[in-house]
Each structure stands twice: as C-alpha cells, then as structure tokens.
Records
---
Amino acid sequence: MKAITVSGLIILAFASCAYAATMTAEQMKSELVGHPIHWKSKTQSGVTTYKPDGTIEATVEGDKATYKGTWAIKDNKMCEKFDKEKCATINSLGGKKYSKGAGTFTVE
C-alpha cells in the first residue's frame, strides 16, 4: 500500500513540474507587460506593473509607499531595478499563474 502511495506522489510531482515552462522574452512582453501582477513571496505580497515604457511600479501589502524603478528583459530573464538590478527567470505554471524565484504571481 505504501508503494502505491509513494509512486502516486512521484507522478504528481513530475506532473506539476511538467506545467512549469521557462518564458521567452516575447512571452514575457505579451503576457506580463501592462497588466497588474499580484505576487506573493515567503514573507510579503503586493502588486507590480511592468509598464510598456520600461518603468515599473510596485506596492507591498501593509506598506503605503509605491516603489518605482525600471525593468528590462535580458537573456530571457526579467530584470528589475529599484536600487540594485536583479534578474530572474519566469516560469509559466499555466493559465495566468507564474513563478519567479521562490515566489508566485497571478496576472489580471
């Protein structure tokens, strides 16, 4: 009985990974730019918008400030610069759900 349960969990793990696909630069531009992105990390959540002019605005839940910076796509990675530039691969999880680093987000 335990063998069936373990093998079932392994299949589920592979099935969930199969849906995560690294996004290309063109996919990021068409699916993310210009849309409010609701994100959640291990410690925070908020809303970010990548604007078509290369600027970015972000709010963090519980913080009244709006953070402004710039964004660019380099080597199929989304790069954000508020004070220091950070780049990360974005994976499509299907539908309008995505992952970036340890966080996940949904696009409106």
---
Amino acid sequence: MKRIFLVPALTAGIFALTTGAAYASQYIAYEGPGFTGRSVLIDACGPSNIPYHGSYKWYGDGQSGRMYNQPNAHGVMHFRLPSNNNAEQRTPVGWQSIFIEC
C-alpha cells in the first residue's frame, strides 16, 4: 500500500518541477540597435555574461533580472528587470552581465 501513495506523490513532484521550469524569464541580447543582427537568448538561473549590447528584449515570467555593468555579475547591481513585466530597449546598452534570480 505504501507504494500506491508514493508513486502519485513522486509524479506530482516531478510535474511541479517540470512545469515551473517551462516558464522562465528570458533576456534576448541583440548585436545591433533596433533588434537587428545576431542574438542570444539568456534564460539560465544565476549569472550570465551578455555578448551583444546593441538592444535587448526582456520577458519577465516569474524571475527578476539583476543587471551589472561588469562581467560575471560583479560589482554593484545597476538595474533590476521586473519578474512580472516585459521590457525592451532599441538602442545600445552598457550592461555586461545579468543575474536571473530563480
């Protein structure tokens, strides 16, 4: 009988983990202004360096993004992107890294 109760509990836990991971905030960095050129998607928790600085789009879906003017999220946080709202900038940005708070 214990196995009958354990299997549904494990299934529910796995389902909760996978559904939560499917909706992560996303930072898209573009090489050129106006969302042009190459781009990179950053959606990993923790620190990430930003390779392109021409423009960006942010899709806040539960996690905030702390923006830094230095690589590896070092130094003082410069700006916080919201966890529940989108943002974008068509002109160049100076941010060198992001820390997505998960």
---
Amino acid sequence: MEANNSEIFLETKGTAYLGVVENGKIILGNAGIEFQYKNPHRGKNIFFSWKSIKSAEVDVSISGRLGQQFSLILDTQAKVRFSSKDSGPILKRVAEYVGKENIVRAPSLLDPFRRAFKR
C-alpha cells in the first residue's frame, strides 16, 4: 500500500519487529502510520492506514510506567510490534484515530498466575 500522508504530525526513530529487527523511522500522518526502513535496500516503506488499525497494545511496567514497546492490531487480526523512545506521543496520536478505549495494556508474563490466584 502506498503512503499517502499529506500531513506529518510526528516523525521519530523506531524499531519494527517484522520477523527480524528493523531500525528506521516511525512516521505518523493524517492518513496513517508509516515505517521507513533505515536501509533503503530493504524495500518500500510499510504503511498502515488509520482505518486498518483496530487497536493498540502497550507494554506497561509493574510500577505503571509506559514501556517503549507497543503493538498495532490490524483488522486482519495481524499484530505488528514496534518500539520507540517516543511511545507516549505516538500512542496519544494513535488514540485520536482509533479511540482511547482501543488502547489496551498488553498481557504480561505474570497475568496467567494472577488470574489463577484470583479464583
């Protein structure tokens, strides 16, 4: 899919986990989120329109701090994981398009144990 952002709201360094770790830029615009590879020989940029993003999962620490990693869940049920030092501003912008209620806490490794003890 071709990127068609006519306005860019945020551009920051980031990492995409696409089977392998890819460094580059995360670009947020009026049409969607784009990941631009640092190495131009990798291919075209990856683009996700706002309509194709159902929700986002955020890593939150035990102390409640927002983590650097987050995932976008697409309408095809695919999950694309990213990491950025600017995850807070990125997720605020994503929330404007997908709705605050669709930004959820990612399950942690301890969640199954917590559920077992709550019963």
---
Amino acid sequence: MSLLRRRPRERIELAEGFHAAEAPALQRAIVQALGNDRHGGRAVPAEVQVQRGRDGHLALVWRNGIVGFVPREHVPALAGQLARYDERAVVLVDGSVHPEVHAPPRDGDDAHGVLWRIWLGPAPAAYPEPPAELDALPVPERTILGVPVSRLRPPS
C-alpha cells in the first residue's frame, strides 16, 4: 500500500437540490472559504465533499473547511449513496454558495444583512427560502483573541 496514492474521487448526482443546515453558526467558515468570491455578491459554484460524521451525521466540506451539515430529512438518501463507495473515497456533490440578504440584519448576518448559504444539487433559477427549523446550532458570540466582544465594551 502506497502512502502517496490519491484517494479515489466519486460523484453523487442529486435530482433536486436543498439547503445545507447550520449556515448562521458556520458563517465564519463559509466566508473564509469564499475569500474574494464574496465581493461579487452572487452565487459561486461549489464542489462540496460529503463526509461521514458522528451519530450518522453527514458533514459538508468546501475548500478544506466544514461549511455545513446535510439536513436530517436528506441524510438517509445520501447515506445510502455513500455506502456504495469505499470509506477512503472523496465523495463530491455539485452545489453553490449564494447570498441571502435580510433587512434588517438577523443574528449571524454580516453588517450588510448578508448570510451566505450552501445549496447542494443543481442551482435553481431562484433559491427558495430555507425551512425555519433548518439551523439548530447557536450563532457563536463575536470574540477578539477569545474574549467576547460584549466584555470589552463598558456597560451602557
């Protein structure tokens, strides 16, 4: 067995698309992975890797960062397709990363009210509104060197 051999790359084709879960909680990772692509303000094509996680969860990795999770209702279908491939295989799904603009900004949005979302599957003409119960993880508190920003401001 060679240590330098590349892992096999496999593709999963989705008939219909869906939003990934936990975009507000993982917004920092998504924006960091986007890099300069976020300045265009439009959808960016993405080749997302699906990885098996704990307790049957499926994590989504894009540009070497975890950017979301497969929603519970879609896990059985994707897990069934993942079972066909070797555990060492890199399993990819085509998708896109698109901005969702809110006015006024919601929790997790940037200063302009933009929240970047991960879409798995073929890109639609217009992205649908994600389900309300899609995101369960809390948005992390803003920190500077690990110190919450709320502690740095004097109480008003």
